[in-house]
């Protein structure tokens, strides 16, 4: 009697974050050594998902699949022997999209008084639900216009006073895009005014 079979995950999980791989092993419910399998003429016929989002490779009782795009990918395998017995095993796994975001965005002005012209240095943190996703491009946006871009966040210079919306648009190596915008107040460039007049007094030690 042919044993019952299940597809067991050797690597990965039933749900992964794309891109990622899973390895499935077709496992009998009782031990079936190579001699017995050869004697019974055990063979495997895999029905695999197709498309640009999935790459599959089957070798006898082992299947490796790499999901490059989100989706649900069904798999089935027919196990037959020379006596005509057939066992069919089905399995499906899901690949979900990663979540990439800008967690925080803050600024430091130079000069510290934020008087124009002021150079604004951004400081930001990003995160992703995929361990291999990283920022690859930063675009600095001032009041709706892209003013700088590069592989690192770049400072921007404000020459007009008032409240400005400064944002960053980050593209990851997976081509995900995350944005965040915060406000920055640039103050007028004017001569400091003393809070009250003072008088110089001469001829007395310790007096001004």
Name the features.
single chain; 208 residues; mainly beta; 4-stranded antiparallel β-sheet; 4-stranded mixed β-sheet; 1 helix
Q: Short summary of the structure?
A:
With 208 residues, the protein is mainly β. It contains one helix and 15 strands; from the N terminus they run βββαββββββββββββ.
Q: How does this structure look, described?
A:
- The protein has one helix spanning 34-40; strands spanning 5-11, 15-17, 20-28, 43-47, 54-59, 62-67, 71-80, 86-96, 100-110, 118-128, 135-142, 145-150, 156-158, 162-172, 177-186.
- A 4-stranded antiparallel beta sheet has the order 1-3-6-5, with no helix packed on it.
- The model has no long low-confidence stretch (mean pLDDT 91).
- It is rod-shaped and about 110 Å long.
- The chain contains 1 helix and 15 strands.
- 3% of the residues lie in helices and 56% in strands.
- It is mainly beta and 208 residues long.
Count the E strands: 15
- Major sheet: order of its strands? 1-3-6-5
Please summarize the sheet with the most strands: 4 strands, antiparallel
* Helix/strand/pairing category: mainly beta
Number of helices: 1
Span between termini: 109 Å
Following the backbone from N to C, one meets helices and strands in this order, namely EEEHEEEEEEEEEEEE
Q: Report low-confidence residues grouped into runs of 5 or more.
A: none
Please, what is the average pLDDT?
91
Summarize the amount of helix as a percent range: under 10%
Q: Rough shape?
A: rod-shaped
Strand content range: over 45%
**Oligomer description:** single chain
The Rg value, from CA coordinates, equals 32 Å
């Amino acid at each position: 009697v042919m044993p019952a079979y299940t597809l067991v995950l050797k690597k990965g999980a039933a749900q992964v974050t794309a891109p990622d791989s899973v390895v499935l092993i077709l496992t009998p419910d009782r031990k079936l050594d190579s001699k017995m399998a050869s004697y019974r003429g055990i063979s495997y016929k895999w029905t695999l998902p197709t498309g640009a989002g999935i790459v599959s490779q089957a070798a006898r009782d082992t299947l490796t699949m790499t999901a490059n795009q989100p989706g649900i990918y069904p798999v089935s395998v027919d196990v037959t022997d020379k006596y005509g017995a057939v066992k069919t095993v089905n399995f499906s796994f899901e690949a979900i999209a990663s979540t990439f975001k800008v967690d925080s965005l803050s600024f430091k002005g130079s000069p510290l008084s934020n008087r124009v012209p002021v150079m604004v240095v951004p400081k930001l943190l990003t995160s992703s639900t995929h361990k291999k996703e990283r920022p690859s491009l930063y675009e600095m946006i001032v009041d709706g216009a892209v003013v700088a871009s590069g592989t690192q966040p770049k400072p921007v210079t404000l020459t007009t006073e008032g409240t400005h919306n400064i944002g960053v648009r980050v593209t990851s190596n997976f081509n995900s895009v995350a944005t965040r915008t915060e406000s920055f107040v640039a103050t007028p460039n004017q001569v400091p005014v003393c809070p009250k007049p003072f008088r110089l007094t001469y001829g007395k030690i310790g007096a001004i």
